[in-house]
Amino acid sequence: MEKALERTTLLIGDKGLEKLTNSSIAVIGVGGVGSYVVEALARCGVGNLLLVDHDIIDVSNINRQIHALTSTIGLSKVDVMKNRIKDINPNCKVEIKKEFCTPENVSIILNKKYDYIIDAIDYVKGKIAIIELAKQKNINVISSMGTANKLNNKSFEIVDVSKTHSCPLAKVMRKELRQKGIDSGVKVIYSPIKSIKIEQNDNTKEKVLGSISFVPPVAGLLLAGEVINDLLFDSTCMIEI
Q1: Residues in contact with 35: Cβ distance below 8 Å, sequence separation at least 6, in sequence order
Q2: CA-wise closest residue to 98 among 49, 48, 53
Q3: Where is the THIF-type NAD/FAD binding fold domain (predicted)?
Q4: How far apart are CA 84 and CA 113, in angstroms?
Q5: What mean pLDDT, rounded, does the chain reach?
Q6: Average pLDDT of 193-215?
């Protein structure tokens, strides 16, 4: 893998690459955002990954999820992603859990010490539980807010959750976190641009969110970049650019 990561090493040095090789990162949710997070982490040389997602690949995922192909429809997202990582970075140790993350099982799912936890799921109670556990265990955590019903992929910001505005999911998260005694200290990626209103049949029981190929992936890559930079520039591994 030395040749494959040669250009990465030119940027971050041997010490930086060693840091990433020894890092353990959990990615909860391997969809439009999470699949691109995983892809970027594997290509950076991260040595240990936990992938959590109970879902299978559906034809409706093809427009925005990196593992979604006509040949992978019906397969487990984490199985496909694990095989993809093996083809990218054979040295990466990948653990998968086919679980839907909830407050009841989060401590079982995240039962090891991680250098970083990345939340890329839609379920609010699950997101809150992930953040709570990360805080309790003093683990770095970053959470993705909404990326659906958007066309502007240049508006994403990574800020403390207390600084978010104009994002319905972030508003709910702020309220729920305050009730847990967490007013700040949680990194999130969000867009302050209001979502596009989607016209749907009022009789539709489940509202379908609009998505496009160039929005969720951007959020995923920005998340991965933030995590990698945090790992490289922490107090134990300072690299010089």
Answers
A1: 65, 66, 67, 68, 77, 81, 220
A2: 53
A3: 8-229
A4: 24
A5: 94
A6: 84
Work out whether the CA dihedral 65, 111, 173, 125 comes out positive or negative. positive
Range with the poorest average pLDDT among 83-92, 144-153, 193-202: 193-202
Q: Which domains does the chain have, with CATH numbers?
A: 6-232 (3.40.50.720)
State the Cα–Cα distance between residues 87 and 130, nearest whole angstrom.
29
Both tokens assigned to 169? 């999911």
Maximum CA extent, the chain: 58
Q: What does the block give as tokens for 59? A: 């034809």
Round to whole Å and give the CA distance between 36 and 183.
Answer: 29
Rounded Cα distance, 41 and 25, in Å: 9
| pTM exceeding the 0.90 threshold for the entire prediction | yes
What are the residues facing 210 on neighbouring strands? none
